[in-house]
Design goal:
With 217 residues, the protein is of the alpha/beta class. It is built from four helices and eight strands; from the N terminus they run βββαβββαβαβα. Strand 7, helix 3 and strand 8 form a beta-alpha-beta unit.
Amino acid sequence: MPKSNPFVANPFIPEPESAPETPDVLAADPVLGGSLSLPGPASPELAPPVDTSGDGSWRTSETTARPSLCVMGVHGGAGATTIADLLGSDALDVGTSWPLATGWERPLPELPVLAVARTHHRGLAEATRFARLWAGGQLPGSRLIGLVLIDDGPKLANEQRAAVSRLARMTPHGWHIPWVETWRLAPATQAASPLRVRRTLQQIRAFAGEPKKGTDR
């Protein structure tokens, strides 16, 4: 039996067909403007010097999986599962631990990793700590693609916008996903996502497939 939709008043009455959509227009982002992402240091070696002595350490986990992209939340409830689902079945939600490849093959591959955080206080604080640890060379063994910051509400405060802009430049690539109201009432799918979100997902997949500079892979 198909699952009922709690937001439909009478599930026995079919809903009318929706009118054809008008052509999508890429709306400006409240933080990134017309850009899909902001660039940052491509590797820890290219990042500004940072003292991570007060930042603790980041948890790690080993995996034998070889996904096209590992999606890691920098805190619980970051939205990593949603982003992994939107990216497709070859993306793996790895929880909140930095993933490291394990197995018999040598050399072990560097797994591509996408970090995800919300824009509330805890999310921004943990994203900052994560970015500092990465820049300080404390997260070797896998390849960070960048950081996605997902809005925690319909409108960001000025302090949040400033923090998102700063964090977006602290990793190789920084993305921002504004509040998507439709995700509150229905599953998050690419088809039901704004054009900016779909383009962002495409760009993330493209960067994940790029070999690390200076290698033959």
